[in-house]
Design goal:
With about 500 residues, the protein is α+β, with helices and mostly antiparallel strands. The chain is built from 9 helices and 17 strands. The chain is elongated.
Length: about 500
């Protein structure tokens, strides 16, 4: 009986001696890179190879303390705070409007904030109220802690407080200004000795008329920006060190992230009215108020082309022996048929992973270079995420190849097996993400229950509950988490292998 190593060596020898299969893997890597090289639209429109280079001003987003792209635009009424201190305010009203009409914007925000500076992307912590999500403590763009639910009004105000002690900020809320509840405590490493503390108001793009349909794809029905207006009173900034900073009456207004028509503040001595527009949040694809940055996985658009080449080779790796009537020779040399199937799966998986790794590792830097040269801004990701995408994309191709081998074993017909595996993997991905023929619901369904769910391994930008964006496949979001989607593909491959093993045991060669 042949040993496992001998069977593996025999299958590897079969593979490497067929020039067409080696060429197919090389073509898969080249196609992955080649399609990427042809797809590098500009920030302001499509630029053909050799065409004009677009500057791309307005496409770049500020970068937050964690290295993520952020949206940082709000109206800030502030004073400098040196050292420790406590900022307190009562919010008595928050409304949103667009083109002079009141709209419902669930994530309009107003509250107190301590920020390292007025530069967009600065480290911060804020206690805020929202129309639909209650009181929140948010910090450094991605942090979000829920407080009491409910909207704010003149009859149901909310007291908000931030206390700074070095790099530690603690947020409190109260309904009466006497009994306080801690919402959260955060440590903002590297805060300067003097920070900016005060009141802010902002409203993301989008919203709906009262009782109307909510829209995430733009501003309200008129197409105008969304403005939020908040009313504050009982405002105080208590410094631990007396005399640190200007007197309490010296409040300054500043539009962080750029001025917006209608933004500003009014101080009547007893209170403040602050109006602002924008958001303080991660910048994500599908966010109407975002920069329009491009996620890194856009450089892997050529994967589906390389995948087709891989699937053809993987199917033929099994079906060629049936077509040439050589499978009986193989099973005579190795009576343990399942061992042959396992060896073919390991060989095709390893070769495909190597080819996919080369293609992916080349496509990403090339694609990013071309996109940047045409004025695009690449949304930054961490090194571990980039490593997961590179290795995961290669693993995606490898597992798909194993699935193709299993289908080739089941069907024993090259054209039929190739058709089935392409319909199962490539077409759902293409129709759900590349063609605007399906609505978000059916597209999500396809990417949950078909092997195309494995493409989720490419996703780099997470969904944020506090960011109302269009989280659709067309914007690069998959309904399953990266590893969960990849697990769906692995499940299909394992099932197909099990069925193929059963057929090999029961059917004639």
């Amino acid at each position: 009986m042949s040993t496992v190593s001998a069977v593996l060596r025999a299958e590897w020898t079969k593979f490497r001696t067929v020039r067409g299969w080696i060429a197919g893997m090389i073509i898969a890597a080249l196609v992955t890179v080649g399609i990427t090289a042809l797809d590098h639209g500009s920030c302001g429109g499509t630029v053909t190879p050799g065409g004009s280079v677009v500057n791309g001003l307005g496409c770049a987003a500020p970068v937050g303390p964690g290295g993520e792209a952020v949206t940082d635009s709000f109206y800030f009424v502030h004073q400098p705070l040196t050292g420790s201190g406590t900022l307190t305010a009562r919010v008595t009203g928050l409304t949103a409007s667009s083109a002079g009409q009141t709209v419902r914007q669930p994530w309009a925000k107003a509250g107190v904030i301590v920020q390292a500076s007025t530069r967009p992307g600065s480290s911060y912590a804020a206690m805020l109220v929202t129309p639909a999500h209650g009181v929140r403590m948010q910090y450094d763009y991605t942090g979000d802690v829920a407080g009491l639910p409910g909207a704010v009004s003149a009859t149901s105000p909310r007291w908000l407080r931030l206390t700074r002690a070095g790099d530690t900020l603690t947020g409190y809320e109260s309904t009466d200004g006497t009994h306080w509840t801690t919402v959260g405590t955060v440590h903002l490493t590297g805060l300067p000795a003097t920070v900016q503390a005060g009141l802010f108001t902002t409203a993301p793009a989008g919203g709906s008329a009262p009782g109307g349909t909510h829209s995430l794809s733009g501003n309200s029905s008129s197409g105008a920006q969304t403005l939020a207006t908040a009313s504050f009173d009982r405002v105080s900034l208590d410094r631990v060190s007396p005399g640190a900073g200007p007197p309490a009456a010296a409040w300054s207004g500043y539009p962080v992230g750029g001025s917006s028509p209608g933004a500003g503040f009014h101080h009547d001595g007893g209170g403040f009215t602050v109006t602002g527009s924008g958001d303080i949040a991660p910048d994500v694809p599908g966010n109407a108020g975002g920069s329009g940055g491009t996620p890194m996985e856009h450089t892997l658009i050529g994967t589906f082309g390389g995948l087709i080449a891989v699937l053809v080779v993987a199917v033929m790796f099994m079906t060629a022996e049936y077509r040439r009537h050589l499978i009986r020779v193989t099973f005579t040399a190795t009576p343990a048929r399942v061992r042959v199937l396992a060896a073919k799966a390991l060989v095709i998986g390893a070769v495909t992973f190597a080819a996919g790794l080369v293609g992916t590792a080349a496509a990403i830097p090339l694609g990013e270079h071309l996109l940047r040269a045409n004025g695009n801004y690449i949304l930054p990701v961490g090194p571990l995420t980039e490593l997961r995408v590179v290795a995961g994309n290669a693993a995606l191709l490898a597992v798909a190849a194993v699935l193709a081998v299993a289908l080739g074993t089941l069907l024993r017909h090259s054209a039929g097996a190739v058709t089935v595996v392409i319909v199962a993997i490539v077409l759902p991905y293409f129709f759900a993400t590349q063609l605007p023929l399906l609505s978000a619901g059916p597209a999500d369904w396809l990417l949950r229950v078909t092997p195309a769910a494995g493409f989720a391994i490419q996703q780099t930008i997470p969904r944020y509950p506090q960011v109302a964006a269009a989280y659709t496949p067309g914007n690069g979001y998959f309904p399953l988490a990266p590893w969960a989607g990849f697990a769906v593909l692995c499940g299909y491959a394992a099932l197909a292998l099990a069925l193929a093993a059963c057929r090999l045991r029961r059917a004639d060669a």
